[in-house]
Design goal:
mainly beta; 6-stranded mixed β-sheet; 4-stranded antiparallel β-sheet
Length: about 170
Amino acid sequence: MAALLACATGCAGATGGGVATGTALQGEGPTTTGAIGFSDVKVGGIFRMAFPLTRNISKQAVSVTGVKLLNVPAGGKVLGYSVYSVKDTPGYRLGYQETAHPTAGDVDLDKYPNYAGHPYTIKPGALSDKYAVIRLKVTAKVTKPITGCEADYTQAGKTYHQTLTCRFQLDMT
């Protein structure tokens, strides 16, 4: 798992393992509106899709410790999570299909520092420079969208998780 998101004061709602549901984070960017997708998807394809950019809307710093997708439909297999910084990469890389023959201008995220496994802090009111990216392989026909970006984080010594709206579509028609 990678590291991405955080929580704040006012986090509430205990869940089944003693972890509270947080409210400190706000997702921003196209993945929160369902605008990210790929067409002409084939079985065997490997795709990278970015989680929403994350803003700490609380009054206390948060430390993001992990991320995961909640709803991966049949036909999709998560190969891993990475975390990148917009300070290292040429901006916020929304997504792309991995290919053996990249075209001019393609950006290979593997060439940039990966912060997965390293908690990072988001200051109060700040938009994080870090963003998580899922690596997913299509193993069979995918008929439903991929949804639910969850972040794990700590704040003031307490552990939280929060689900942010995200939606990715793989069009196999």
